[in-house]
Write a structure and sequence with these properties.
Layout lengths: L6 H4 L7 E2 H7 L5 H9 L3 E3 L2 E2 L5 E2 L5 E3 L2 E2 L8 E6 L15 H5 L6 E2 L8 E7 L2 H8 L7 E7 L5 H9 L2 E2 L2 E2 L4 E4 L4 E6 L6 H8 L4 E9 L2 E2 L8 E3 L2 H12 L7
Parallel strand pairs: 9-15
Antiparallel strand pairs: 1-4, 2-3, 2-5, 5-6, 7-9, 7-17, 8-9, 10-14, 10-15, 11-12, 13-14, 15-16
Length: 253
């Protein structure tokens, strides 16, 4: 049996909806043929009602596979980049070191937030404006994790002060988590994103940052992604990311 939709399927109006197998496939979760198997196994629901072969999904309805919601959109891309030194997080093509020319992707994408030119690590890029706005909201308090190397031995007073809050940029930084990993190195988890925040916090204590690498944004971890390399986010990463940014901060563990 062919896995292709008929011409009529490709031109359905919003009122008619689209077949549930096509909807599932457009999320990147699996092929249409595999989606049919999930439907036959009773693992697919549309607005909490069990789907059957031929069920159509209307605009605004929620489709779940084995209880997990799907967010299909064939035009959206979500990318994790291990940004190297010297690349700037800007879409301004007049900057010869801009990240857009560096990654050279065939769709117009945008970096989510900043990572300064002298830092390396995880940078997310997408063409999904809703994701960009939600992650960048200051009140979202979204976790970002970094590994840092400074120029002199770390003291307990330094760690305690960094963790409780440091006066920079006419304010005191939010409390954060910080763990010493070596005589000159530490991990830090921030829930805000002030300009050059970690460097400024260290400078307040007369430390100079030698190396700074972001390793995690919310549920997305840099893992073994090589320096300068990029990859697409997995379906699970996208699903979990959208779930996290839709929750109020106090609801998260």
């Amino acid at each position: 049996m062919s896995d292709l939709s008929s011409p009529r399927d490709e031109n359905l109006s919003a009122e008619e909806g689209i077949r549930v197998n096509r909807y599932i496939a457009s999320s990147g979760f699996c092929s249409r043929r595999k989606a049919d198997e999930y439907v036959a196994a009773g693992l697919v629901t549309v607005d909490d009602a069990a789907a059957i072969a031929g069920t159509r999904v209307l605009d605004g309805q929620v489709v779940r596979v084995d209880g997990n919601p799907l967010f299909p959109d064939e035009d959206y891309v979500y990318i994790a980049l291990h940004k190297p030194l010297g690349i700037t997080c800007t879409t301004d093509r007049r900057d010869q070191d801009n990240v857009i020319d560096y990654i050279h992707f065939d769709k117009r994408i945008y970096p989510i937030g900043r990572l300064d030119k002298s830092s390396t690590g995880l940078l997310l890029l997408t063409n999904d404006g809703n994701i960009v706005n939600r992650i960048l909201r200051a009140e979202g308090h979204h976790e970002k994790e970094y590994v840092v190397e400074v120029d002199r031995p770390i003291t307990q007073d330094f760690l305690a002060s960094m963790q409780s809050g440091v006066p920079i940029l006419d304010r005191v930084t939010m409390p954060c988590k910080i763990i010493q990993t070596g005589s000159h190195t530490f991990r830090i988890i921030l829930m805000q994103g002030l300009n050059r925040q970690i460097r400024r916090m260290c400078e307040y204590h007369e430390y100079h940052v030698r190396k700074l690498k972001r390793t995690r944004i919310l549920n997305i971890d840099i893992g073994f992604l090589p320096l300068g390399g990029w990859r697409y986010l997995t379906f699970k990463e996208i699903r979990d990311l959208k779930t996290l940014i839709s929750e109020p901060p106090r609801a998260r563990k």
